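Long-time lurker, first post. I've been practising inverse folding by hand and with some scripts of my own, and I keep getting stuck on stretches where the structure tokens seem ambiguous. Below is the full token string for one chain I'm working on. Before anyone asks, I'm not after the true native sequence, just a reasonable design that respects the backbone. If someone could post their per-position residues I'd love to compare against what I wrote down in my notebook.
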């Protein structure tokens, strides 16, 4: 069995790398790739997947804010029964975690109807760089708090549930 961390955007890749660096994210089986990848669909890595034994089970953890599109298994039809997919969401955007982590959520709620989290972050943290931020900041508090205050659809999981530290 292999695990694939497929991220909707680069910010999610930075977030997951930061969690891995801190030892908050580890698995009982190896990652298909050595690290999280910015990937919405498996088409880009179908060749890698097809190089595995035909009955190799692959678990795809899709991490992103929308994840509306279904996971396409084109070019992987013969493997479809061995590929499982789970959605881990950060709605409305991954920047909401930064807002929570910086204890700015109450301020954000006041303008949330007209302001996207990314815009809000740019106002309060003009030099925000997700690659540095997620490397420098532990996000367990924000992930735990996010689960407490946000509601997901039944098939959408919370990132905190993927972590070793709950």
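-- Answer (accepted) --
I ran through it position by position. Result:
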């Amino acid at each position: 069995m292999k695990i694939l961390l497929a991220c909707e955007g680069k910010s999610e890749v930075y977030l997951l790398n930061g969690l891995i660096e801190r030892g908050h994210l580890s698995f009982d089986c190896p990652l298909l790739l050595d690290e999280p990848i910015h990937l919405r669909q498996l088409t880009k890595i179908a060749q890698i997947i097809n190089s595995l034994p035909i009955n190799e089970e692959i678990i795809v953890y899709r991490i992103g804010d929308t994840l509306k599109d279904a996971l396409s298994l084109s070019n992987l039809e013969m493997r479809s029964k061995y590929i499982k997919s789970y959605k881990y969401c950060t709605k409305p955007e991954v920047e909401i975690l930064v807002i929570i982590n910086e204890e700015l959520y109450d301020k954000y709620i006041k303008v949330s109807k007209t302001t996207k989290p990314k815009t809000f972050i740019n106002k309060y943290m003009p030099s925000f760089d997700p690659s540095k931020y997620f490397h420098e900041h532990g996000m367990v508090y924000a992930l735990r708090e996010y689960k407490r205050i946000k509601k997901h659809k039944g098939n959408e999981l919370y990132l905190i549930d993927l972590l070793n530290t709950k």
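A couple of notes from the structure itself: Helices lie at 10-21, 46-50, 95-101, 105-111, 117-124, 130-136, 140-149. The radius of gyration is 17 Å. Happy to go over any region you disagree with.
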